[in-house]
Amino acid sequence: MNNPEYKITPIAFSIHLKGVNPIFGEGITHVKIEDEEAVPFILLSQDGSESIRLDVEELEKVLEVSRLLIKEFEEGE
Predict the structure, then answer these.
(1) Is 65 left (phi over 0), alpha (psi -120 to 50) or beta?
(2) How far is Cα 11 from Cα 22, in angstroms, rounded to an integer?
(3) CA distances from 25 to 4, 20, 28, 31, 58 (A)
(4) Which of 1, 30, 51, 73 has its Cβ near the most Cβ atoms within 10 Å?
(5) What is the pLDDT of residues 5-54, one digit of tens each?
């Protein structure tokens, strides 16, 4: 009999406070990678609200402007 070879591939993470249920807890954010026609994208969801879907290039731009906004905010305090 041929033994199948299994592989582990993480496709989702949960961001949550310590002590909060990572699946159903309040204030958690789920980050998941999905694939549509061989194009990966990131799916962000929080507390059962609508998801945000970003392709990799768009995600990089969101991170870039988010860091800029935080920097400008901190310098303005």
Answers:
(1) alpha
(2) 15
(3) 36, 5, 6, 15, 28
(4) 30
(5) 999 999 999 999 999 999 988 889 999 999 888 889 999 999 777 899 99
